[in-house]
């Protein structure tokens, strides 16, 4: 094969190989997204090697994941089996016209709320509680991290507009990337997430009600590029207010998970959050009892009493006429607070893998039960 022909062959083969490189934010091939502007192959003097220059157009200037994309491209080039290739990656940014066209195509493909389309594969779990202080957000964060560590494409929406806490629990201090009006969720510990707490001015008190509150959820669903996650978790505000009703209306395929603690004062209120299903079309998937016990020097202490989760399960089963199982009884552990406050879900080790602790085992079992039909 002539050198010029071989160069063209290499360029064509590399374009095909780069079609397997996926943009980590958009979840689409970098060739499909038009990010590969040019590939040029030139022979190196004195040998059979080739210098390969790849012009990559990023969607935004200073893309935070540009190094990830570059590493994947380098890997695809260096692993080319038929010749020795020396990659040279040149990064630039898409023109505003090209980016506008791309975003328009993506929005047309998605069309509003992507989670209610026929055939959607996403399982949606809305994590609710009757009152604050039962560890609902902690359960949401650790459950999301568990799903991600198990290999599921996982997304989370902090739907607790008044008391958002997922950014802190995941150590997120950045804002979503804005692609001409379409937001990229922030990814932390393998979980794609969005929260009002990621935006400037979020430290102010929020007094949204009714339509404006519902619109915030609609924007989180429709104006964010989620791709096609396997699992979506929503951290709801405590109680049975506007957001719970909005979730039921926007996501009729969502499954409610009620979090309670053992004492009667919590379990009695938790039942009310599950009874929302009598007013709106929402399945109650089950009950999680948090802070169930504390292990101390070989003795299991019931600090907050016993039986709350079972009471909620039994009452909801009777009221709804369908089984509402007690899915898990989670321990009271200081690790959940100490590690969680540091910005890492307690079920993960410092490398981001699922830890080998009993707590991680409990959440792994909970994740498995939730995915059972």
TrEMBL record:
InterPro entries: FSCA_dom_sf (IPR034904), MIP18-like (IPR002744), Mrp/NBP35_ATP-bd (IPR019591), NUBPL-like (IPR044304), P-loop_NTPase (IPR027417), YlxH/NBP35 (IPR033756). ATP binds at residues 130-137. Residues 12-82 form the MIP18 family-like domain. GO terms for molecular function: 4 iron, 4 sulfur cluster binding; ATP binding; ATP hydrolysis activity; ATP-dependent FeS chaperone activity; metal ion binding. The keyword Hydrolase applies. The keyword Plastid does not apply. It comes from the Bacteria. Keywords: ATP-binding, Hydrolase, Iron, Iron-sulfur, Metal-binding, Nucleotide-binding. It holds the Pfam family FeS_assembly_P. GO terms for biological process: iron-sulfur cluster assembly. Gene3D superfamilies: Fe-S cluster assembly (FSCA), P-loop containing nucleotide triphosphate hydrolases. Belongs to the Mrp/NBP35 ATP-binding proteins family. Homodimer. Binds and transfers iron-sulfur (Fe-S) clusters to target apoproteins. Can hydrolyze ATP. This is Iron-sulfur cluster carrier protein.
